[in-house]
Design brief:
The complex is a heterodimer. Chain A is mostly helical. In chain A, 61% of the residues lie in helices and 8% in strands. Chain A has a single domain, classed as Orthogonal Bundle (Arc Repressor Mutant, subunit A). Chain A is built from 5 helices and 2 strands, in the order H-H-H-E-E-H-H. By secondary structure, chain B is an all-alpha fold. The chains are: A mainly alpha, B mainly alpha.
Chain lengths: 123, 184
């Protein structure tokens, strides 16, 4: 079984967006989800395209063109879905993030983690 | 009243021209989905143009990264430089001894590389015929003649030497073509 490369933060965001969008994962919907995940940082659509291309080259996602739709001026969507390698890479990243979270909580205390969560989740 | 209509028609034509230019700037491999996404995100033409100006450079850069093969580019660069250097050596040795003389054969070589990079990025995805692979070098050498970065006879000999080499490299090590897929 091929071992996935470790992911950059932005790659993690894009893969998470593809995962959560399911069958409706294409440029615009992925970008809006990535913006939601990356807030308060602004994310450009171009950066999402670049990352999607890179992830496709790494074999972490697969893309195909859907049928054209009138609201897009008769243009097709490029839809994305996670490949097995992408799922494993995302899983590894999530496990690492959990370890980081636990490490911080251990040192700074559960009370701080609660306050921190409230502050950032409500933003 | 007539002036207002004329202005509106002029504005609509300008917007249409800008949209056509944006479509032309986008590499064919990703033109369809990027134009569709831009259309979906922007209700107004102004928004479309601003969004496109922010997005298109990323798309072009990404396409160049995907289609460029660093090893093949390096082989091209060495072959091209040596050909123009050899042409300079045989035709006008004094030119190579001038200040920056050794850098001058690099100008046509870089120009050819740039055109080849863009040609590969803007080619349609999928396998390409030999004729399509030869199109890039032929256009590139046309640009080299127009640029006049070296005396014409050196450019002529250098291009005559490097054209077969460039064609052979492209035919032997066909540039990458990503497997973008159609409807399923």
């Amino acid at each position: 079984m091929a071992k996935p490369d470790s992911l950059g933060q932005f790659e993690q965001l894009v893969l998470t967006a593809i995962l959560t969008r399911g069958d409706d994962a294409y440029g615009v919907s992925i970008h809006s989800k990535v913006e939601e995940l990356a807030r308060p940082k602004a994310v450009s659509l171009g950066a999402v395209y670049v990352t999607l291309d890179r992830l496709e080259d790494k074999g972490l996602v697969k893309s195909w063109l859907s049928d054209p739709t009138p609201e897009r001026g008769g243009r097709a969507k490029r839809c994305y879905r996670l490949e097995g390698l992408g799922e494993r890479a995302l899983e590894e990243s999530a496990v690492t993030a959990k370890r980081v979270w636990d490490g911080i909580a251990q040192v700074w205390g559960k009370e701080w983690v609660k306050q921190w969560s409230k502050r950032w989740v409500t933003q | 009243m007539g002036e207002a209509v004329e202005q509106e028609v002029g504005y609509a034509m300008t917007i249409r021209a800008i949209r056509a230019l944006i479509a032309l700037l986008l590499p064919p491999a990703c033109r369809e989905e990027v134009l569709g996404d831009l259309q979906e995100r922007n209700a107004t033409s102004g928004g479309f143009c601003i969004d496109a100006m922010r997005t298109v450079p990323h798309v072009i850069a990404s396409r160049i990264r995907r289609t460029a093969d660093p090893q093949l580019l390096l082989m091209h660069a060495i072959a091209l430089y040596l050909c123009y250097y050899a042409a300079g050596w045989f035709m006008d040795r004094a030119l190579l001894r001038e200040t920056w003389g050794l850098a001058r054969p690099a100008i046509p070589a870089l120009l050819v590389l740039l055109v080849l990079l863009l040609e590969d990025a803007y080619s349609k995805p999928g396998p390409r015929s030999r004729l399509q692979l030869a199109r890039g070098p032929l256009i590139a050498f046309g640009f080299v003649f127009l640029a006049q970065s070296l005396p014409s006879r050196i450019v002529l000999v250098g291009s005559a030497l490097s054209l077969p080499l460039t064609l052979a490299l492209r035919l032997l090590f066909s540039p990458q073509s990503t497997s973008r897929q159609g409807p399923v």
